[in-house]
Fold this sequence. Notes:
This protein has 9 helices and 6 strands; from the N terminus they run αααβββααααβββαα. By secondary structure, it is of the alpha+beta class. Strands 1, 2, 3, 4, 5 and 6 form a 6-stranded antiparallel sheet that branches.
Amino acid sequence: MRRFLRVLSTSAPALLGAALCFHFAMTLAYLTPQNPLKLRFARLIDGYMNPLLQQNWHLFAPDPITDTRLLMVACRLRAPDGSTTETGWTDITTPYWEAHLENRLGPATRVGRSVTGAARLIYSADPASLQMAKKLDERRARALEGGGGPGAPQEQEVDRLRDQVKSEQDAASRLGRIVLTRAGSAHCDSLYGPDRTTAVRMRMAVLRFPRFSRRDLPDAGGEMAYYDLDWAPYQPVAPLEVATEGGPAPPADDRTAALEER
């Protein structure tokens, strides 16, 4: 027993150092821009970092804000006679931020960020991934022009990396759509009651601020754009009153009208 404790005490610093080196190496690999080495070990890196250690560089190098984004939901409701009706658009973003201003320690911010983050997964592709996919396509085109075939080892590796990039993009888009559908379903239940919604549809309204050359204009003088998802089947989820701490989200008719006037 003493020998075991002596061996453990002497090897503990080395084991701890090795564990820390592994952790920081995985964190560094996770935070680096998209590259072939990261793609090769993507399953190992993501499996270690997600979900408890997930992070990004926004705290240290945030991108300047260039627009205001609102997420809205429309609900397809089942009437007692069996018919269905479709509601107007309701803002589901603003209630989270209003709840956060009332209670800085509440859960509204975390829930709101999960919803807006899901929208970014769908509408904001990783620039590094897009650039890498473009480079891989250009390399493959040059190889084919030079007489190379898809069966060459190098071309097989290019195809594998290209498929990996596309797979990551598709997986992010699927995850974003799932989260938005569940969020929309919860809001439809909160607005119109449970067991009434059969399908939900999400919309993102983006108000792009005037560019620097038009800095004399107010933010409201920018360009407004809407991005709509298709109708998706209702997903049963927990109610949202706990997150917003204010009951159901109010209709967004006034907010939508104000945005459209801009």
